[in-house]
Write a structure and sequence with these properties.
mainly beta; 7-stranded mixed sheet; globular
Length: 126
């Protein structure tokens, strides 16, 4: 069992920055990868970024590439998402996700993960 708790969301002006954190607890020694998704009101949840726990290979959605950076601190069992040059279209609830099993990793879809956090709100004002 893995529990995930997001933090760091809030209100920021266009062009500002935020850093989201996702703290994992429980059976963290089996972690394979973690990722971030977001969901705006009335829209489907979409992939943002993901990182392999071992090795640190990362993936990004085209909409955030160059502005967002995903990272992880393995000893702290924590994943981060540094968001720069935020835009109103980045406004959404951001969810932390984790995968604790190996195999083909469809990092960009919900089914690629088996644990989810409760989400943290990010609002970017115009």
């Amino acid at each position: 069992q893995v529990q995930l708790v997001e933090s760091g969301g809030g209100l920021v002006q266009t062009g500002g920055s935020l850093r989201l954190s996702c703290a994992a607890s429980g059976r963290t020694w089996s972690m394979y990868a973690m990722g971030w998704f977001r969901q705006a009101p009335g829209k489907e949840r979409e992939f943002v970024a993901a990182v392999h726990w071992s090795g640190g290979r990362s993936y990004y959605a085209d909409s955030v590439k160059g502005r967002f950076t995903i990272s992880r601190d393995n000893p702290k069992n924590t994943m981060y998402l540094r968001m720069k040059d935020l835009k109103p279209e980045d406004t959404a609830v951001y969810y932390c996700a984790a995968r604790d099993y190996s195999g083909t990793f469809p990092y960009g879809i919900d089914d690629g993960y088996n644990y989810w956090g409760q989400g943290t709100q990010v609002t970017v004002s115009s």
